[in-house]
Specification:
The chain is of the alpha+beta class. The protein has a domain of about 90 residues. It is about 65% helix and about 15% strand. A 3-stranded antiparallel β-sheet has the order 1-2-3, with no helix packed on it. Strand 2 and strand 3 form a beta hairpin. The longest helix has about 60 residues.
């Protein structure tokens, strides 16, 4: 048995009737009611609140999309830092015992470590005070 009903928001005038139709298979029911201004006012309030919920949902979805993009960017930075840190032993091995290469490597590691520490410190929020 097929059942369906449709509801539409209409602007009603005092002399018009509200129409509600239901089709249940081959049975057709038509109900015509003169609009009650209090009921219509309350329905308008409900519809306004639904519009607000819909708008808030769209704002929340946009905020979630922004957050996902920020997390992806942070993941890229973190992955780069991990790659740098994991590559240090290979750099030391490649420098061998050559004092000039070791000094250059030490300078490079110090510079990158300082830049990483500064970035972490800059992007770490201060602890809240109780």
């Amino acid at each position: 048995m097929k059942r369906w009903a449709t509801f539409h928001r209409h602007q009603y005038h005092e002399d018009t009737e509200m129409k509600f139709e239901v089709d249940v298979s081959d049975i057709h029911i038509h109900v015509h009611v003169k609009p009650d201004h209090e009921v219509l006012a309350r329905l308008d309030l409900v519809l306004d609140k639904l519009d607000l919920v819909s708008s808030n949902q769209e704002n929340m979805m946009a905020a979630i999309d922004d957050l996902q993009a920020a997390v992806a960017a942070e993941d890229t930075v973190i992955d780069s830092a991990i790659t740098l840190i994991q590559g240090i032993p290979a750099l030391i091995a490649a420098a061998g015992v050559d004092p000039a290469k070791l000094a250059a490597l030490q300078s490079d590691i110090t510079t990158k470590s300082s830049a990483l520490a500064a970035a972490v410190a800059q992007n770490t929020p201060a602890s809240p005070t109780p």
